[in-house]
Amino acid sequence: MLPLIWISIQCISLLSLRRLPQYTNPEINREIHMSANIRPTAVAGTFYPAHAAPLLDQVRHFLERTPPHKQVHPPKAIIVPHAGYIYSGAIAANAYALLRPLRDTIRRVVLLGPVHHMSVRGLAAPSVAAFASPLGTVMLDQAALATLANLRQVMVDDRCHAREHSLEVHLPFLQSMLEDFKLVPLAVGDASAADVAEVLERLWGGDETLIVVSSDLSHYLTYPAAQQRDATTAQAVLDLRTNISHEQACGATPMNGLLLAARHHGLRPVLLDLRNSGDTAGDKSRVVGYAAFALYEDKPHAH
Ligand SMILES: [Zn+2]
User: Fold this and answer.
1) What is the predicted pLDDT for the residue at 250?
2) CATH architecture of 3-302
3) What average pLDDT does range 97-123 have in this prediction?
4) Distance 43 CA to ligand 1 centre (A)
5) Could you state, in order of their start, the residue ranges of all structural domains in the chain?
6) What is the pTM of this model?
7) What is the mean pLDDT of residues 168-190?
């Protein structure tokens, strides 16, 4: 079964939470109000285990099997896939494992993923206070989101986030790797690379800020065709090209934006892993491609 097929069986909506009845007990109303201000999980139990213990086990299993990496300093940004964990979790883990030295340093994660369920212009921020995960609630960085308020390409739209998996699947990895962080989640629709890069510039920060871009690569090609196309896409990332197409990567828009910003900041991309669902848990007749990249700031003090 291919990962995108799973999406249709989930239909949790934030809008339905807001229609909860009003109770006469003010304590119950307060709890309802608080829960309505948290985005619930949409794909727990399908893309990844719904309960904390087996979820932690699976994430740790992936992380423990990542090969040692030669880089001595941690990345400023990573590009990671967002399929069900059995398909792409092992690939994503290669990037997340690099965050070990940053456990107590990173306080803010800027997480950009493409929309899969609705078309939208620009980048959509949620209005909620937090995102739920089986490993606990992740608070949003309201101060960081407020800095985006006057950008014409950024709007607030919870519908873009309600069923979206491209951001949610990264929370358990981040929660496993980082001690205490706030999230800036943006669902990316129709936007230029410059639009996305402008948003990233506002949020760039220093060592306390990690940028995570969520994308899969080719979709439903034969195994050899996918290998060929994904190798071309990987090279485009390594060359910091900003014209990756949506046939190459569903997250092409946030990827192009990150790569444009990476040029300005002199980031150096490294390919950590490149596989597809035929290598992990799927058959080889039609596959989805996955890659993990790290982008490094070459700071002398970090060596
Ligand atoms: Zn996708």
Assistant:
1) 98
2) 3-Layer(aba) Sandwich (3.40)
3) 96
4) 14
5) 3-302
6) 0.88
7) 98
